Amino acid sequence: MDSEGLIQANLAFICGTGMEELLREGRELRIGTPFGPSPKITLGKIGSLNVAFLPRHGEEHDVPPHRVNYRANMWSLNKLGVTRIIATNAVGAVNRDYKPGDFVVPRDIIDFTRMRSQTFYDEAPVTHIDVTQPYCPELMSLLVRASRKHAKRVKRNAVFACTEGPRYETPAEIGMLRKLGADIVGMTTAPETFLARELEMCYATICFVSNMAAGIEARLTTEEVIKVAGKIIPKLILVLKEVVGMIPRERKCVCSRALQGAKI
Questions:
Q1: Alpha carbons 213 and 92: distance in angstroms, whole number
Q2: Of residues 15, 3, 5, the one with CA closest to residue 206
Q3: Model's pTM, two decimal places?
Q4: What residue numbers bound the domain in which 66 lies?
């Protein structure tokens, strides 16, 4: 379905399962892209702002992290006029100072994915985007401020290690990530971060620690992750709604100028 004639969105949320309460009412549509159709996107309002909600793993959470069509997702949001994206991620704690239930706003990323299409620029013009600040500094600041109103523990300036999945990491891999400076580990912030930058969209993520990473806990189970998520998600929804009311009209960050000087 084409986006022409539809109410466009200023802000998009890319979320996992359990976040549907963020935007229950709205118009549902799919967007055709050169990379295939998007999942079902909900368009609606939070306060006075037009927003879009995109379920990263599909409406039934039937798409594993290494099979998400990241390019179709980001392209479809751009086609809807989205200029800012806030994502959510459940993560494991690599840094032993982080605990389940903590909110985390990362500032940097180490990408260990292997099978995912990383760019829209597979052909000329050859394009090298700068990711000195991979996450939008304006959105990061807003997420930290909003989180502190609803959570006891908020970690900022974290380094997010993104792995391929769908399996969890081994203790040796977590030990390696810790030595490399990672604080948290998850499976879905890459290549979202980089694709958003290539489309000059602001992108930041707010994470919640659902478990301690392998080697810190005796065993990891999906049931454990889901149990912790169920307790945290209501607070996370409050944080995201709080952020909506804080977003300035104009963008003054580096994200909106990402392609300047990037093409050969």
A1: 5
A2: 15
A3: 0.93
A4: 11-257
